[in-house]
Amino acid sequence: MSMSGAVDLSAVKAAAEAKQKAEQARAQRAAQPEGQGGAAAGVQLVIDVDEATFEQEVLQRSAEVPVVIDFWAEWCEPCKQLSPVLERLTEEYAGRIVLAKIDVDSNQMLFQQFGVQGIPAVFAVIAGQALPLFQGAAPEQQIRQVLDQLIQAAEERFGIVGAPVAPGEGGEPRPTAPEPPSNPTLAAAHAALDAGDMGGAIRAYENVLADEPANEEARLGLGQARLLDRVQGADAQRVRQEAADRPDDVAAQLAAADLDLVGGHVEDAFGRLVEAVRRTAGEDRDAARVRLLELFEVVGPDDPRVTAARGALARVLF
Length: 318
Hints:
It is built from 13 helices and 6 strands.
């Protein structure tokens, strides 16, 4: 990770002042009485941020601690896989980073300001400077490496080290996650998915569905795992170029549609496959149709974009 691509944000002072500001903030916090922002006061590590609170919660805090930004949306299934991992790691880093969660549907100005191309997308802000970290869901080990590099860069370049907190001092608790599944095979499938072991996750979800064909959680997890398994290691530039060069090649369109969806370009993925169904026949057409139905399941049947794409598919088929 390099700071060379950082984008200056005009709402804060130059990065050269960051070290002094961080030291002043730490000194002020340490001097305050306990319970009034002093060293023992609770520090909220995972925060929901909107356009109104962005300057205070992100820009100003970035002078004291690296702020990681998670751009997400309720309809984005890969976001639902990534966000819990980011939240857990933020708590584990115990004050060396802060996680700011931004719902892109409610904060389009911030979405555009950062030049986000698709979600989930993860950025960082250090001393008022923003830099992209990664886009799309990623294995936990890779995320951990990126965060380690971010923390190192913040300390070496700006003297920003955060404010370490002890366990239990992470501020007001966020809503607790649902209870873990009672089915141990389903729990193992979820764990494999979080760890980036897509093969293990697929096998475990399939085992759950063999015993419980109506298990909605396993069905959704299997769709996500298969999608992420297909895009692992893909050369995105090559895949997209092949899809552009060979519009009648169904395999090329399927691969590009998978990348579209993982990158948060839901409508692009659906439109690409509807067009593939329209242009082809026989086995190729059936392959495009089946993949489109699989992606519908990943996004969720109640999503309005799924409803629209179902209508487009019906018009092409009938």
